[in-house]
Design a protein that fits this description.
heterodimer; A: 97 residues; mainly alpha; 41% helix; elongated; B: 423 residues; mainly beta; four-stranded antiparallel β-sheet; 2 helices
């Protein structure tokens, strides 16, 4: 009977997690987690945002009406020019002496 | 620490004379074992760099907006058929067959060009000479002989060479393909677990391997902790398994973490082909292929982490994919852990040992000291407490020489090679 009262360490950890993230889904190993895994590497390119970012660069000299610090997605979406340049360093692996 | 240097795979070849490593930067480094010689008795069995080459480059799939990492996920050697060595290396999308050959002779005395390469004026040549082969310093060249591309929508996690030495399989999250080593424009899909509606997705393929001597048999593991054994003679599409291995779970002990920690990160057949071993987050299990109901042996790798699952989930460590390996005689198994620790289990004596792969704890030709993690209560001298473990120092990849007690351990960007002490 004593053993029934002992809570497994796993259940203690589960309670901790649920306390920190009360909205955590009840199906943890399910679709959300798996779909995140399948989408690894996904980067989104939006031509609208890209053109806005390009226009923003050109208009850098003009004073802006508002200096809001709100995030503009155009600034953060990677542009095609950025991506292909991401080459590995040509320095040989350190293991190769 | 340059992330490109992080080792992502380690593999001995069939003889154990060559050891290949792949890294996050898409490079392969091959080490060769020194031959024993009377002149240098102390360098018996030392591994030195033999060849290094860039296997994969980063790519961007514009159509799918997908960034394709150059990281080498797996390397598998092909059996040696001639003087050259061949291996398969794969990133998330493309498998390549590399041929590594030695050149120690060069031709000298060409008719139409000088030794420095300048062309000779043909009208000035008055006599014929035959080029002669002269010895030169050994050059090891790697060339890509086959590129197996565009067959995987999802990320490749495994490749495995079949015992027929003609075919191999490649597995991604949802599908497994069978290839012929000579044919790059076609592959057969042999397993497809993609549901018609992706909302119904409940599990993914985590690893796959061909049986070591039955060329019609292979296994694949899942994120739900199950293993399916398939027979390619039974049907063209092996969606229906021949055997299904799953350990029964006590429903009362189920928690949020149960499924995540049961996910199998590696599956390896024993050399005998009679057993297979699976690695999940906290343990290594040995299964008898004749018994599907439960494993025959279970080894706890780091059970003390069960009471740390909450933070391990938050820092994503709970998703770390540890590999495991057998020794040549199948009497021992090895797998990695955190804090640069790795564990070895002797299946006969049931003894286990924890060792550390780090500069501080290993000196050349020094003997490794066993390590111990203190799980609670008073910490003894030399023990390390669970809270002091460095979870950034993970040993995910280890390999055991096929015949001798030589092991290779990858600790982030460093490779350690340990040998049984010589008597």
């Amino acid at each position: 009977e004593m053993e029934d009262k002992v809570v497994s360490p796993e259940k203690v950890e589960e309670a901790k997690l649920k306390a920190r993230y009360p909205h955590l889904g009840s199906k943890p190993g399910g679709s959300d987690l798996l779909r995140k895994r399948l989408q690894k590497g996904q980067k989104y390119f939006d031509s609208g945002d890209y053109n806005m970012a390009k226009a923003k660069m050109k208009n850098k000299q003009l004073p802006t009406a508002t200096t809001e610090k709100a995030e503009v997605t155009g600034d953060h979406i990677p542009t095609p020019q950025d991506l292909p340049q991401r080459k590995p360093s040509l320095v040989a692996s350190k293991l190769a002496g | 620490l340059s992330t490109a240097d992080i080792i992502s795979t380690v593999e001995f070849n069939y003889s154990g004379d060559l050891l290949a490593t792949g890294d996050k930067g898409g490079r392969v480094v091959i080490f060769q074992r020194e031959q024993e010689s009377k002149n240098r008795p102390h360098s018996r069995g030392e591994y030195n760099v033999y060849s290094t080459f860039q296997s994969h480059e980063p790519e961007f799939d514009y159509l799918k907006s997908l960034e394709i990492e150059e990281k080498i996920n797996k390397i598998r050697w092909l059996p040696q058929q001639n003087a050259a060595h061949s291996l398969l290396s794969t990133n998330d999308k493309t498998i390549k067959l590399w041929k590594i050959s030695e050149r120690d002779k060069k031709a000298e005395g060409y008719n139409l060009k000088e030794e420095d390469g300048r062309l000779r004026d043909p009208f000035r040549i008055t006599s014929l000479r035959v080029p002669v082969l002269q010895p030169m310093d050994l050059m090891v060249e790697a060339s890509p002989r086959r590129i197996f591309a565009n067959a995987h929508t999802y990320h490749i996690n495994s490749i495995s060479v079949n015992s027929d030495h003609e075919t191999y399989l490649s597995a991604d999250d949802l599908r497994i393909n069978l290839w012929h080593l000579e044919i790059t424009d076609r592959s057969f899909n042999i397993v497809d677990i993609k549901p018609a509606n992706m909302e119904e997705l409940t599990e993914v393929i985590t690893a796959a391997e061909c049986h070591p001597n039955q060329c019609n048999v292979f296994v694949y593991s899942s994120s739900k902790g199950t293993i399916r054994l398939c027979d390619m003679r039974a049907a063209a599409l092996c969606d229906r398994h021949t055997k299904f291995f799953e350990e029964p779970e006590d429903p009362s002990s189920r928690s949020f973490f149960s499924e995540i920690i049961s996910s199998i990160s590696d599956v390896k057949f024993s050399h005998s082909g009679r057993y297979m071993m699976t690695r999940d987050y906290l343990s290594v299990k040995v299964w008898d292929l004749n018994m599907e109901s439960r494993p025959v042996e279970t080894y706890q790798v780091h059970e003390y982490l069960r009471s740390k699952l909450c933070s391990l989930y938050e820092n994503d460590c709970i998703f770390d994919k540890f590999e495991c390996c057998w020794n040549g005689t199948d009497s021992a198994i090895m797998t990695g852990s955190y804090n640069n620790f790795f564990r070895m289990f002797d299946r006969n004596t049931r003894r286990d040992i924890t060792l550390e792969a780090s500069r501080e704890s290993s000196k050349p030709r020094g003997i490794l000291k066993p390590r111990k993690v203190c799980t609670g209560g008073k910490r003894k001298k030399d023990e390390i407490s669970v809270d002091s473990l460095d979870f950034n120092k993970k040993i995910l990849h280890t390999a055991w020489h096929p015949k001798e007690n030589v092991i290779a351990v990858a600790a982030t960007n460093n490779l350690y090679i340990f040998q049984d002490k010589m008597n």
